[in-house]
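DM from R.C. (forwarded with permission)

"hey, sorry to bug you on a friday — could you get me a structure for this? deadline for the figure draft is monday and I only need the backbone to look sensible"
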Amino acid sequence: MYTPRVKLFLVAVFCAALVAPVYGAAPYYEGKTIKLIVGFSAGGGFDTYSRLIGRHLSKHIPGNPSIVVENMTGAASLLAANHVYKIAKPDGLTILNFHGNQVINQVIGKPGIEFDARKFEFIGIPTQDNVACAFTKASGITSFEALRSAKTPVKVGGVAPGDTTYNTGKLLIAALKLPIQLVAGYKGTAEVRLAAEAGEVAGGCWQWESIKSIWRQGLDSGNVAIVLQVNPKPHPELPNVPNAVDFAPNENAKQILKFGGHDPAAITRPYAVAPGTPKDRVQMLRKAFADTLKDPELIADAKRSRLDIDPLTGEEIEKIVLQLFKIDAALVSQLAEILK
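My reply, with the result:
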């Protein structure tokens, strides 16, 4: 039998053990700097979301580290993803923001991928994306019918394999036989927008959440039109815009759009840290990320920038990633041919 004094001592030790991991982690981040590496150029949708998050994340991490956003462009964020996977230390001080389409690229065996998406430690996603195709009034493509019936190929700007701008163009050519000429090689959606305004291309297809923010002036002035959306169901903000899946001629075309476009769109903007990052830091960052996206100051900031917040947790991303590796082998082969 323990005396009352011994019992009190044991209770104190037990309570201290419970709270130690919470308070013991704070000194690790105190005085440190977290690099948030964005795989695209400044001014585009990925960069805009990352800088929004970077302005508010620190106060939700014990120790309040500094947050520095860095742009590492190349191959639709593949350069950044490979870098964090292979080179960045698994210490919780480097957060990757890459394109989720690189996951489907791994599934179909695209060259250049030097990571295994199943081994990243995912932190979260700020919003689940919806895809739309925007064209300038000057291009003459002001409706889906104008696009579908174009007598000459319509130039559509793209970044590189794995990016939504590129993959969507390829999927629309394969599933709907649209007369699209994909012009790839731009660093990001900001450059695609500028190319469209300069007349180099007619427009591009990427996340509506990004388009309405970075191309707001064109939309408001009527100089830019949304002529098509590529979503599992119509987006509430685009009720009168035709949806690609409704024009799919058969079930195979619907499957191409679903697994090549709709499902990857849910994880377009993942944030992750390197494999091997200590689990306590992963959990801390996951909680901080989720709390940041609930922060009234961030929500107000997002509204001013017309950015949607519709997050997924790190655990939810992991489930979707694993599901993409279970696609039927025949469809994987078909997607590989389409997105080559």
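R.C.: lifesaver. The domain at 34-128+269-338 is CATH 3.40.190.150 (D-Maltodextrin-Binding Protein; domain 2).
me: no worries. The first strand starts at residue 33 and ends at 38.
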